[in-house]
């Protein structure tokens, strides 16, 4: 993870803490800087097979993403530095192992961060690629009907909270949907319920973590095809008991995302 991404993730945590008051501040600031900066993996997962999730991409600042179109990646706003021309991001696709010789590497040309993004909710962004990547795209949910059941999460982020050691091998896990109401037992009004959804086990142990941000949370649709319902966004620590992961609610933004992708 680059210095920039490190600062950005720290900033996001700090902003959220400031907005949420003393309790949140205590939780967030207890995280050592190294934990915030950690290029970490899915916690409690196992390695994904080559080509299992062909739409998954890795971003050079230490985030994940998914191919929304052959030349457009959907990721998290908090992984980006803002909208505009940008040729500084390297997108790696086509491999579970980042060191594989088969890795496809393409540069960004432009970034579009969600309109109105200020660090709370609206955590989505699009990256335009210098050339199309010939891999399957991941369609996004356009209604809330898939905000239920069990989701797959995947990423190259930390496998332990605060580990600070990214993995080169894509990790995967499954986590159950958590209702907004239950998610608020821990997060209260820090959860932007309309724009975010939660997932995780009450007992903890399995979660996304630092370095997984921007990656997709997905499930099968009624036709048995993968569909994206979430974007890895934030959480208090990783995989803690009673603390779900928080994901951007993709269906809420589906129209905005489609519009932004067409304009990119
Ligand atoms: N903000 C983190 C990142 O930049 C993702 C954290 C997800 N946390 C969680 N407990 N699910 O990589």
List key phrases describing it.
264 residues; alpha+beta; Thrombin, subunit H; 2 domains; 6-stranded antiparallel β-barrel; 6-stranded antiparallel beta barrel; 5 helices; 15 strands; 29% strand; binds arginine; serine protease; Peptidase_S1_PA_chymotrypsin
Give the SSE layout:
Elements: H1 3-20, H2 22-29, H3 33-37, E1 46-47, E2 56-59, E3 63-69, E4 72-75, E5 84-85, E6 90-93, E7 104-113, E8 125-129, E9 139-140, E10 150-155, E11 171-178, H4 180-187, E12 196-199, E13 216-220, E14 226-234, E15 245-249, H5 254-263
Parallel strand pairs: 9-14
Antiparallel strand pairs: 1-11, 2-3, 2-6, 3-4, 4-8, 5-7, 6-7, 7-8, 10-11, 10-13, 11-12, 12-15, 13-14, 14-15
Helix pairs in contact: 1-2
The structure holds arginine.
The site of arginine (ARG) has 14 residues, from strand 14.
Domain Peptidase S1: 42-262
GO biological process, one term: proteolysis
Pfam family, one: Trypsin
Overview of this structure, please?
The chain is α+β, with helices and mostly antiparallel strands and about 260 residues long. Residues about 1-40 have low confidence and may be disordered. Helices cover about 20% and strands about 30% of the residues. It is built from 5 helices and 15 strands. It folds into 2 domains: about 5-45 and about 140-255, Beta Barrel (Thrombin, subunit H); about 50-135 and about 255-264, Thrombin, subunit H (Beta Barrel), CATH 2.40.10.10. The strands form 2 sheets. Strands 10-11-12-15-14-13 form a 6-stranded antiparallel β-barrel. The structure holds arginine. Arginine (ARG) binds near residues 208 and 235.
């Amino acid at each position: 993870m680059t210095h920039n991404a490190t600062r950005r993730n720290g900033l996001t945590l700090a902003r959220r803490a400031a907005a949420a008051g003393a309790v949140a501040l205590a939780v967030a600031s207890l995280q050592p800087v190294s934990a915030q900066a950690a290029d970490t993996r899915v916690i409690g997962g196992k390695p994904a097979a080559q080509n299992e999730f062909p739409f998954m991409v890795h971003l050079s600042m230490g985030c994940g993403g998914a191919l929304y179109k052959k030349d457009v990646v959907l990721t998290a706003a908090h992984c980006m530095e803002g909208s505009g021309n940008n040729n500084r991001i390297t997108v790696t696709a086509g491999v579970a192992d980042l060191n594989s010789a088969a890795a496809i590497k393409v540069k960004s040309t432009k970034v579009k961060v969600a309109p109105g993004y200020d660090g709370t909710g609206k955590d989505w962004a699009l990256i335009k690629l210098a050339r199309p990547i010939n891999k399957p795209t991941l369609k996004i949910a356009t209604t809330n009907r898939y905000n239920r059941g069990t989701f797959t999460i995947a990423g190259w982020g930390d496998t332990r909270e605060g580990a600070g050691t990214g993995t080169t091998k894509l990790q995967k896990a499954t986590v159950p949907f958590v209702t907004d109401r239950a998610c608020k037992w821990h997060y209260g009004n820090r959860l932007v319920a309309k724009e975010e959804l939660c997932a995780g086990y009450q007992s903890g142990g399995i979660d996304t973590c630092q370095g997984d941000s921007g990656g997709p949370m997905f499930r099968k649709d009624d036709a048995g095809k993968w569909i994206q319902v979430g974007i890895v966004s934030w959480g208090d620590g990783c995989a803690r008991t009673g603390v779900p992961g928080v994901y951007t609610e993709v269906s809420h933004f589906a129209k905005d995302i489609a519009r932004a992708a067409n304009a990119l």
